[in-house]
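Re: the 332-residue chain
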Amino acid sequence: MSDAYMTKNDNLRSTEEIRTLGLLLIDGFALMSYASVIEAFRAANALAGRTLYRWSHISVDGEPIHASNGATILADVAVGQPFECDTLFVFAGGDPTGFSDARTFAWLRRMAAHGAVITGVSAGPFLLARAGLLDGYRATIHWEHRPVFVETFPNVSPETVLFVIDRRRVTCAGGMAGMDLAIEMIEREQGHGLASIISDWFIRTDTRRADRPQRLSLRERHQVSSDPVLKVLAHMEETVEEPSSRDTLARIAGVSVRQLERLFRNYLGATVRESYMRIRLEKADQLLRTTALSVTQVALACGFQSASHFSRSFRDRYGKPPSGRAKTDRVS
């Protein structure tokens, strides 16, 4: 299979040839990301009335793999066993920094060298980068994993889009974007007609292309129409490590401190300080769930001068101490 595979609208394969998929599942993988991808390929077979795709599930040791919600998938193949496929998907979730199996990374490199299109989904791109498979490639990753990805791999700057197809490397943010990617792949391989039918089947009336953003805009997330408030919220999200003063925030908004407080109460029902604290604690919660950082490290990364102040603030908001926040509470 040539590198032309990833050229838009190329129909490289005979319609009679079956494509093979490998699904490498890492314990704690997000079930939604996996289902969004594989269901599109299942639908392709069902709606075409013949087998276009076959797939095998792969685990590190050949044992069953457990999803983040406790569901179990049986493995057909173990890493290292003889196996060939056209496209290899790597599904991971939780804290990808905790996965360090050198044998799996070496196997991924071999699969890439043998011509498989290597695809990372959700936290899967982190594993691809750790295996050295994203050097020189464009990539994306779920927005929750982006900060630790950037810190760990400074030479790979992930884009904040749904998915990226760059030659024989594919990366996807996960969640519902998995279906967007899978349908895009099916369209490239089988044509627009089948891809459209699959979209209809899954009641996917809005075709989301690769460059769509992963997150709602600030305006949509906060249901706010005030430009001064939106400017300040954007600044707050960018400066959780070193929070700015109210005077600085007012200058950014182009209003007085008193006017800024009035705007925040009117649009958000909270003071400037309360809103800033909420953003910092949400960031802290994200870091606790998706990284191996200690409570003290998270506290510093979110602008708290002491772990005790951070712990009190966190407990007030979430009803539990930061040490009790499970990193396996994943949705991606």
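The mean pLDDT is 89.
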